[in-house]
Specification:
single chain, Aspartate Aminotransferase, domain 1, YjbR, YjbR-like_sf, 23% strand, DNA-binding, YjbR/MT2646/Rv2570-like, MmcQ/YjbR family DNA-binding protein, 3 helices
Length: 124
């Protein structure tokens, strides 16, 4: 499914997975942020994933480099458990009690797919 390669490739693989499983394509909604892509339900238009490039410092990390992150919705208990791991961060620009940011280059493809599936179900 994912080859675990370059972040741009991993980002595209997330979009391919979502298209094959949920029949949705990324939407680029903001001219100011051309790399921010939203995945949303085709019926109710609720978001279940937001993929974006964010400066490390804006995520509470050291450095100024851009990181590919995805925001997904999870149960609050799961958010609390996952945030003990460095690749899982408080949600960037979303409700931190219900959304989680993930540094996609540091998470394996199976876990990304499982989390994406969970987010899809929670946003039905």
């Amino acid at each position: 499914m994912f080859n675990g390669g370059h972040e741009d490739t991993k980002r595209e693989e997330i979009f391919t997975y979502a298209e094959k499983k949920y029949h949705v394509k990324p939407e680029y909604l903001w001219r100011k942020y051309p790399t921010y892509a939203v995945l949303k339900h085709s019926d109710n238009h609720k978001w279940f994933d937001l993929v974006m490039e964010v400066k490390a410092e804006n995520l509470g990390l050291d450095g100024k480099e851009l990181l590919d992150v995805m925001d997904i919705k999870l149960d609050p208990e799961n958010i609390e458990l996952l945030q003990d791991e460095s690749e899982f961060l408080p949600a960037y620009h979303m409700n931190k009690g219900h959304w989680l940011s993930i540094e996609i280059s540091k998470v394996d493809s199976k876990q990304i797919c499982n989390l994406l599936d969970n987010s899809y179900e929670l946003t039905k």
